[in-house]
Design a protein that fits this description.
The protein is mainly alpha-helical. The protein has one domain. The protein contains 14 helices and no strands. It is globular and about 55 Å long. The chain starts with a helix and ends with a helix. The N terminus is likely disordered.
Length: 319
Amino acid sequence: MKGQSAMVQASRAATIPAEGLPNRTLAAAAAVLGYATLIGYTDNYVRVVAAEGGLWQFHLIRSLMAGAVFFLVAPLLGLELRPKNWRAVAGRSALHGGAMLIYFGCLAFLPVAQVAAGLFTAPIFVLLIARFVYGHPLGPARVAAAAVGFLGVILALTPGTDQPLGWASVAPVAAGALYAMGNLATREWCTGESAATMTLGFFVALGVAGLFGVVFLALFPFAVPEGTDGFVLRGWVWPSANFLWWTAVQALGSMIAVGLMVRAYQLAEASRVAIFEYVILPIAALWGWVLWGETLGWMAALGMAMIVAAGSAIVIRRK
């Protein structure tokens, strides 16, 4: 990553694929399906962790667990963990790490499917950044798709009239903006990096953020609400066996899932992989129904369908 020039290259990923790399589309689709199934399951249990622990402690402990597993299995599996380009991996890790900090913070308040809907504003953000930051032209079809996607986000992230759209609902959209840039950076900045390297970088970024959060809240504590309402503001607490178990499940599941997603973006262009990613919306909703009996209202379901339609239209038009 070389400053602004690297950001320009990332924005151009909407129209210019990495040169000389073949697209293995079916393999990428299979990797995304595995990612969605694992993430849809493990993320549904973040609410269990949030009931007694804090967001920053969760990320710190989870990253330590993931890092320990990485360094134990790396020699056995011959994994390459050292980055070839430290700044590129650090930049990509910061983007995805920031997106996931917001994402996990929201999981304590919203169903996984609705939070995931915020992440999938990513194609819309790629479109807007390319137009208003880098001056790429926009046709009427893309403008219409962006408008449909924006309306879909409003519908999907409004749980109901008794719980109107608030900061907890809007925050996943910010995660979508960071997620968009991180996905583009995976292929454009980190082409020569191994999936293990970038997955470890992702956990390191979240672990560092968790450490800073724990230290900050120890120095400047806030009044913390009970249960999941205190997830973001809660500092270090003595972890129970239940907390450690589900954090370990999250760490292992995320390691495998994030590795699959990284691999997917290495196997095919971002414009192709982005379409497959939308499978996480119905899978997350399905897990929410199986595990907790959650059902989505017609408004949220319609909003998700609009997001899928808008995002798919954007990436197809981009090709």
